[in-house]
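Hey, I was hoping to borrow your eyes for a little while. There's a protein on my desk that I can't quite get my head around. The fold is given in discrete form, as structure tokens running alongside the sequence. I'd be grateful if you could look everything over and explain what you see. Here's the protein in full, and shout if anything looks odd to you:
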Amino acid sequence: MVSVTPYLIRAYHQWMEDSDLTAHILVDCSHPAVVVPKQFIQQDKIVLNIASSATESLILADESINFKARFSGQSVDVYIPTHAVLSIYAGENGEGMMFETQQQPVESEHKPGLTLLD
């Protein structure tokens, strides 16, 4: 089944943009695919401003969130797998949504062996 999380992230982001609020996401940086400036990670988490005024080339896709942002004056490419987003909220009032942590399915290298029994 397709996860509802990316749809909710896009909906909340759009609502915040329309309401002149600043969209932030809380990211679990323990996921190995997360690409953010490591010096800003605290306790395996980072808060990122994903408002259109703070990002360049923002893509809120089904599998990931991608954008460029400036950190300490340097442009950085940011990549967040959707399953690593813990919450999205408005910086001004805290309104938003928390997401359950999701484990990515581990694909087995071996298919299960089936035996036909008489």
Notes: The helical segments are 5-18. Confidence is low (pLDDT under 50) at residues 105-111.
